[in-house]
């Protein structure tokens, strides 16, 4: 997969074999691919993910126990937060980036401005709603990281590869135009 322009993958713990997948990808691609764990709801799952080679942890929720464990192992933690209070609590507990979830699906790129207006230093990961047609809008809004799911997980190997190429091209076009 890295040869198609994707160098970072989140493997969701909604998959019963997520740990095995993470380990396999790290063994196969090594430093060529950054592999992390997603949908990590508790510290037990976070530890298992880290032991299998996860290089970052993403969650749809914030748990202080997960933040502490990730900090202990120096693994970036990106919890989902829907309110400014939750966001501040997550940052104070050591979250490295805030996952705008599920708000990014509902509000699109405007959620970035909503968060960054009072707190411009907060790194934001959008999760949901980004695609080939609007990835430049997300970048222009100031998002720091964009999670792409369906485009890179559904369809044939060729379709997924083509979607990856199109996304990479749109991102490169945005960065050169800027």
Cα distance, first to last residue?
28 Å
For this structure, what is the CATH class of the largest domain? Alpha Beta
Question: Please, how many helices?
Answer: 8
> Biggest β-sheet, characterized?
4 strands, parallel
Strand content: 5-15%
Textual characterization of the structure:
Helix content is 46%, strand content 15%. The chain has a 4-stranded parallel β-sheet with strand order 5-6-7-8. The chain is α/β, with parallel strands linked by helices and 178 residues long. The model has no long low-confidence stretch (mean pLDDT 91). The chain is built from 8 helices and 8 strands. It has 2 domains: 1-96, Aldolase class I (TIM Barrel, Alpha-Beta Barrel), CATH 3.20.20; 104-178, Aldolase class I (TIM Barrel). The chain is globular, with a radius of gyration of 16 Å. Helix 2 packs parallel to helix 3 and helix 7 crosses helix 8.
Task: Provide a concise account of the structure shown.
With 178 residues, this protein is of the alpha/beta class.
Which short descriptors sum up this protein?
178 residues; alpha/beta; TIM Barrel; 2 domains; four-stranded parallel β-sheet; two-stranded parallel ribbon; 8 helices; 8 strands; globular
